[in-house]
Amino acid sequence: MASPWTYSGQVATIDAAGGAVTLVDESTFAISNRAGDIVPGSANGLFVRDTRVLSRLELRIDGKRLQPLAALNLEPFSATFVSREAPTGGRADSTMMVFRARYVGQGMREDLTIENFSSEATICLVEVFIDADFADLFAVKEGRAGDPDGEITRVVDDRCLIISYRRGAMSRGVQLRFAAGADNANGPGHNSVLRISEDLVAIEVMVPAHGRWSGCMEVVPVIESTAILPRYRCGQPVERATPTERLAQWRQQVPHVKTDHDGLRNVVARSAEDLGALRIFDPDFPARSVIAAGAPWFMTVFGRDSLITAWMALLVSPDLALGVLQTLARFQGADVNPRTDEQPGRILHEMRFGEAASLSLGGGSIYYGTADATPLFVMLLGELRRWGLARELVDELLPNADRALDWIDEFGDADGDGYVEYHRATDHGLENQGWKDSWDGIRYADGTVARAPIALCEVQAYVYGAYLARAHFANEAGEFDLYQRYRQKAADLKVAFNRDFWLEERGHFAVGLDADKKPIDSLASNMGHCLWTGIVDEEKAQAVARHLMSPDMFSGWGIRTLSTANGGYNPVSYHCGSVWPHDTAIIAAGLARYGFEEAAQRVVISLIDTAVAQGGRLPELFSGLDRSALSVPVGYPTSCSPQAWSAASPLLCLRTLLRFDPWVPYGKTWLAPMVPPEIGSLKVEGIPLAGSRVDVEVENGSVRVEGLPEGIELIETPRHPATAV
After folding, report:
1. Are 340 and 367 in contact (CB under 8 A)?
2. Of 234, 266, 284, which closes a domain?
3. Do residues 34 and 41 make contact, with C-beta atoms less than 8 angstroms apart?
4. Which terminal residue of the chain, N or C, has fewer Cβ atoms less than 10 Å from its own Cβ?
5. CATH of the domain at 60
6. Are residues 467 and 345 in the same domain?
């Protein structure tokens, strides 16, 4: 069996006929077809903490499947599936409609309503087929979910089916509780008869003429003999449940965008909704929120993903960034453990919960194999200070930042050459430990796959940003020796980087240095991240921008991960020619930072167009096929959606268009909008900054700002590349 951290084979498809519907709330999610059925033999299911607690939930009326009419997904955690009874006996239409209202959160609730539009009462048999295989999420993802290794038992109790699973000392279970016909009040003659067996619930109902019948089912997960009550309970108001309240609060704090460009407005609104849905709240620290990487396969904490997403989402919620930093600091590496690649000071890569005995994040298993999350942690902490969040809360995390910097010097730069490299400690770890972490994600120009240890160009850029962030913390505190130390480290790294990673004959940066310090000479998107942090010498920036915007790299929908001219290019590969929205958004921010306004605008518009073509939501990734060849972006088959940093990408694009860069401790905020004509007027109301809410309006070349905190100077020019991150 492959290690779950390193699996690189075919991923199970989640699409059923007609498309799939995914509902998410924290680490609970449900995947069904558009009729609402969870179909066996597929990746469908109800998953709680990485375990599939329902592998089948299929509805039949009088023994027949229903005809799906609509799936209304109005909230991230709920949907209503509308179907009708299939016409019989030559009739053109049916007089019976079925509504399934589903609510996900620490389990699931489903309200079933049958409406009869006939002038005669109708008797029908409602059947719900049920099964649970308790498969691990990784097994489902990899198509390995067959017969379970442990023992499954089924018990029928009064209006309840209990399915239990035991493997060794680990036990899981699910309780399905039924309240059939409990809330019907449409007159006499619509009583129901409930029968429950080990895999079937059958209900005989009489639906009055022009009336309705309704019932409710609760799905209650059981962890180590403890039932975890669903957030939505039968008989209780839906609007009082925790996810509903949290989403309402989130919506109140999200800035409001007004613009002539409907696509931008709708895409930003959808992005904010998806981020609200992907938040995780630890029961041990319920006031903190952290972001899950994406549905369905990554509904858990990822270090790199959470950090980059939180950075991108600062325009919406600096509090989200604080929660991410606090959570990652809580699980910062403390020991040397080759099995998990843990090292003192290292920030985690991924957390999983398969056999966790509680709902707390502290019950998860952690893998630390990433080279970039640790410097990104320090970078984000510095950026949070720039946004003026509560000083004492940020200062509490400075010791964690210092431990992260110690990791960079001691473990990250194991050979002492001044660069952070990665190399897994055992064959159970990830071969590649940057954001392109597939086994073949880092290649030479001829297509040969590079082997670790590898020093990636963007990782050095993040380290540069981390050094500068720590230098400014020291400057604020009057620690001038420490300030000079980290300023010098940043300066030395910048000089060395521009010398050792630059390919003079090609006019671009190497994607990395291999074990022999030989440049990995492919033309890849990674160097765009170097523009973002400011590590690129200004005299090299134009060549970098020219390559990124060349037909080999820019598809018209976004920036490809690998040039079409390089060996190994494949437009539908994971990291070798596809387009990742977060990667493209970061590149747009880097282009804007170095003054390439027109290029940055083109890239931003391309992402907005992609999102519009995808129904308003950017997927995790899509193919690198050229826009000139196809009028729509071509998807990647197993792309996550919603996915955290793709959801946050339009927010970074919005910030890039505004060129909004606060530096509250120094009493400055840069604002130099570069809104393209396609956007027209643009107003963003309620940007959170240092306890205030700032409104920015751009129209006909004029800029109006309201709500800027007292004592903050507005600088109406772009932030210069050399300005400290």
Report:
1. yes
2. 234
3. no
4. N
5. 2.70.98.40
6. yes
Can you name the residues that pair with 64 across neighbouring β-strands?
A: 61
Q: Please tell me the least confidently modeled range out of 51-65, 276-290, 449-463, 497-511.
A: 276-290
Give the total number of structural domains in the chain: 2
Average the pLDDT over 539-561 and give the result: 98
> DSSP letters of 134-174?
--BHHHHHTT---S-SSEEEEEEETTEEEEEEEETTEEEEE
Cα(349)–Cα(327) distance, integer angstroms: 13
Q: Tell me the DSSP string of 536-567.
A: S-HHHHHHHHHHHTSTTTB-SSSBBSB-TTST
Which carries the bigger pLDDT value, residue 361 or residue 481?
Answer: 481
Question: Is the pTM here over 0.85, yes or no?
Answer: yes
CA 126 distance to own-chain centroid: 38
Q: Do residue 607 and residue 643 come from a single domain? A: yes
Residue 597 and residue 507 share a domain = yes
Residues 192, 222, single domain; the answer is yes
Cβ-based neighbour number of residue 155 at 10 Å: 12
Q: Which of 234, 258, 289 finishes a domain?
A: 234
Query: What are the C-alpha distances in Å from 154 to residues 148, 174, 176, 215?
Result: 14, 10, 11, 23
pLDDT digits (tens, 9 = 90+) for 620-674: 999 999 999 988 999 888 788 889 999 999 999 999 999 999 999 999 999 999 9
Domain that holds residue 406: 246-699
**Taking a C-beta distance cutoff of 8 angstroms, is the pair 422, 433 a contact?**
yes
Transcribe 249-274 into DSSP letters.
HHHHHSPEEEES-HHHHHHHHHHHHH
- CATH code assigned at 531: 1.50.10.10
For the chain, give the number of residues: 725
Question: pLDDT for 88-113, tens place per residue?
Answer: 655 556 788 999 999 999 999 999 99
Please indicate, yes or no, if residue 710 is contained in any of the structural domains.
Answer: no
Question: Can you tell me the distance from the alpha carbon of 169 to that of 224, in angstroms, rounded to the nearest whole number?
Answer: 9
Task: Phi first, then psi: give them for residue 141, nearest 5 degrees.
Answer: -60, -40
- Two structure tokens written together for 533: 């942090």
293 and 144 both lie in a single domain: no
First to last CA, the chain: 44
Distance of CA 539 to the CA centre of its chain: 36
- The token duo for 643 is 């996915």
**724 found inside a domain:** no
Has residue 434 been placed in a domain? yes
Q: 505 and 391, same structural domain?
A: yes
SS3 382: helix
CA-to-CA separations, 197 to 154, 165, 235, 246, 682, in angstroms, rounded: 9, 18, 24, 37, 59
Other Cβ atoms less than 10 A from the Cβ of 664: the count is: 19
Cβ within 8 Å of residue 510, ≥6 positions away: 457, 501, 502, 503, 519, 520, 521, 522
Q: Is residue 404 part of a domain?
A: yes
Q: Any long-range contacts for 699-708 (C-beta under 8 Å, 24+ apart)?
A: 703/671, 703/673, 705/671, 708/669
